[in-house]
Amino acid sequence: MIEREWRPPFPLDLVGVLAGLRRGRGDPTWRSIGDGSGPPGIWRVATTPDGPATLRVHRRADGTVVAVAWGPGAGWTLDGLPALLGAEDDPGRFVAHHPIVRDAVRRLPGLRLGSTRRVWDVLVPAILEQKVTCVEARRSWRELCLRFGEPAPGPAPEGLRVPPSAARIREIPDWEWHRAGVDAKRRRAILAAAAVAHRLEQAVDLGGEAGRQLLRRVPGIGVWTAAEVAQRAWGDPDAVSFGDLHLPSLVGWALVGRPLDDAGLLAVLTPYAPQRQRAVRYVELSGVRRPRRGPRFAPRNYRAI
């Protein structure tokens, strides 16, 4: 067990900054702390270059962040605590060009873009989310972690698991992928990424477009997936998830009062470059929602195929 205290020199919404790393309520790598017995916080399990690690983090009333970590990767995890909570983010030059965004900036002073400094743990769930509903993707992520991930190091709550490593992913037989509801296309992309997982970690050091381009060299990883990874692995403020089923409509209704396609999304976000993803994040948290007038996208049961 290793403990670290850190006092952020900026307003910090601890739970809000980390929320983007959670893959649904049943995510086996995540557990919320908030039963009223103490300050709200997070349990999070991850892989690191030194091995798996469990992190427990909460914030005291005076603003100090208290983090405790267990496992071979505990030291690496605590070294990266400030980056995880947005210390390397620089929102100071962001200019809000729309009233909705401007109001969100005012209401959310603690919003930062954090960096896990680790590609693999966010890459697999991002690939699982390609072209399927969140319900399907999160179920697959949960089942893969529970069956092929190791128990979380330390005194973690029951059920917390380490995400399966690249080596373990390569050992999963075809029928287990089918059982987890992962179709052949997404399975091939995950296996292709697992074969070069150690090289893909270099994307964090490259950052920006260069980092996203490195990820896109892997067959099955496109603009959307690379952006989803960049947003989390190195807190990329300009990595917009173009190709998303819902994002153009959401941003369009919020900023111009009508749904958009990807070309329209690109146009309306152009004034925010090189911080377009930060603008998207403010829109997502603004509370504005697009009208629902049609049927929702129906999940497909890949287990029955």
TrEMBL record:
Would you say which domain of life the source belongs to?
A: Bacteria
Keyword DNA repair listed? The answer is: yes
Q: Which UniProt keywords apply?
A: DNA damage, DNA repair
What is this protein's record name?
Answer: DNA-3-methyladenine glycosylase family protein
Q: Which organism is it from?
A: Pseudonocardia hispaniensis
